[in-house]
Specification:
13 helices, mainly alpha, globular
Length: about 270
């Protein structure tokens, strides 16, 4: 196994390589919201890591007007607050009142940002549930219902084996969140990943857009890169990850992005 110092020095570049060659990464090159959302999300988390709480507030509010992913960011803020509070109780560092208020304010901003776009859409259209009506139009049930769409889609895909598919999805999510390399990234990135994966499992209807949604769970790219770098044949493992991602891009563009009339699957 490679020394930990070598893994840490190689991890940032390896993470970018894995993320940039992810199957749905071509969407970052076109006018979809993922590219701006990824920039704002990374900036907000960077500000949180640097303890620039007030600077993070407008970034988080902008994120809420870009993608509906600001609510799980509150989990990252909460994880950061718990880590600082524990360090203060151990006597390792101070957590002054002004910082506590700033962190609390950032958490409130994340919650407000998560509700900002639905409220704005309702106010502008005069229909309070306009946002959920639009979201429901994309779903098989015709309405926004938490969790249950996962059961619907699993039954549609594998019929009687739906429970096994859901157990596998939930198991992979739990393993990813509990993986030591992810936890070593720090409470902020760990909190974002845990919150965002939980948000996806709770709020969305899984479909062809799921790979695109996973782009914003970018710490998972760091997890995959870290596991590859820790292996004995790390060059082969990392190369295999990149090549698999490129092959996934070809498949994703060919099957989903490329529209073959009269209809196609949304990417």
């Amino acid at each position: 196994m490679r020394p930990l110092s070598c893994i840490r020095s190689s991890l940032p570049l390896a993470t970018v390589a894995v993320l940039a060659t992810f199957a749905a990464a071509p969407v970052l090159q076109v006018a979809y919201t993922e590219s701006l959302a990824l920039l704002l999300l990374a900036t907000a988390l960077w500000c949180l890591l640097r303890r620039q709480y007030l600077a993070a507030v407008p970034v988080v509010l902008g994120l809420g007007l870009t993608r509906a992913v600001a609510l799980p960011l509150a989990v990252a803020v909460g994880a950061h607050a718990v880590a600082r509070l524990r360090a203060a109780l151990r006597g390792d560092e101070e957590f002054p009142a002004r910082d506590r208020l700033a962190v609390a304010g950032l958490g409130v901003a994340a919650v407000v940002s998560g509700l900002l776009w639905p409220v704005a859409v309702g106010a502008l259209t005069g229909q309070p549930d306009a946002y959920t009506q639009v979201q429901g139009a994309w779903r098989g049930r015709g309405e926004v219902v938490p969790v249950l769409p996962w059961f619907d889609v699993a039954r549609w895909l594998v019929d009687g084996w739906w429970w096994l598919l859901l157990a596998a999805v939930l198991g992979l999510a739990v393993l990813a969140v509990l993986a030591p390399p992810l936890r070593r990234l720090g409470p902020e990135l760990w909190g974002w990943t845990a919150g965002y994966l939980g948000y996806l499992l709770f709020a969305i209807e899984p479909g062809t857009s799921l790979l695109r949604f996973l782009l914003l769970a970018f710490p998972l790219a760091a997890l995959a890169a870290a596991l590859a770098l820790r292996s004995r044949w790390w060059r082969f493992a990392l190369t295999a990850l990149v090549l698999l991602g490129v092959a996934g891009q070809v498949g994703w563009v060919g099957l989903l992005w490329r529209l073959v009339p009269p209809s196609g699957w949304p990417p």
